[in-house]
Design a protein that fits this description.
elongated, 3-stranded antiparallel beta sheet, about 120 residues, 3 strands, alpha+beta
Length: about 120
């Protein structure tokens, strides 16, 4: 599987005053991730497009930290935690499943012979 463009990513807006277009690109090296050049958007559409681009970049740039935090919760010894933290751990497993290309619990158990402390986040 090909590797994604290295992070952190940034949003670079079009060069003209009325240009609503933008490019999402890597900060280092400037590799282009995605471009959007809408035709004649309204001012409200322009603000929404900008907000969406910034949201994508923030989520992608936070991916590794959030995945690491979720794995730390899931790795809690013997799940010796109250029901609130157990629900949070389940939400973490759900988030890991969305953020990674494999089933997190099955892969974690297979890769570590059941010892989740050995699991490391992946890109």
């Amino acid at each position: 599987m090909p590797e994604h463009t290295p992070r952190p990513w940034i949003v670079q807006y079009g060069g003209q005053p009325d240009d609503a277009g933008f490019t999402i690109m890597a900060r280092a090296g400037g590799g282009v991730v995605a471009e959007c050049w809408p035709a004649a958007p309204t001012e409200e559409e322009r603000r929404t497009i900008s907000a969406n681009a910034l949201h994508i970049v923030r989520c992608v740039n936070a991916h590794d930290d959030l995945l690491e935090a979720c794995l730390a919760i899931v790795r809690a010894p013997d799940r010796q935690m109250g029901p609130t933290v157990q629900r949070a751990a389940q939400k973490c497993l759900d988030a890991i499943a969305k953020a990674t290309p494999f089933d997190p619990l099955d892969a974690a158990l297979d890769a570590t012979d059941g010892d989740l402390d050995q699991l490391e986040p992946n890109d």
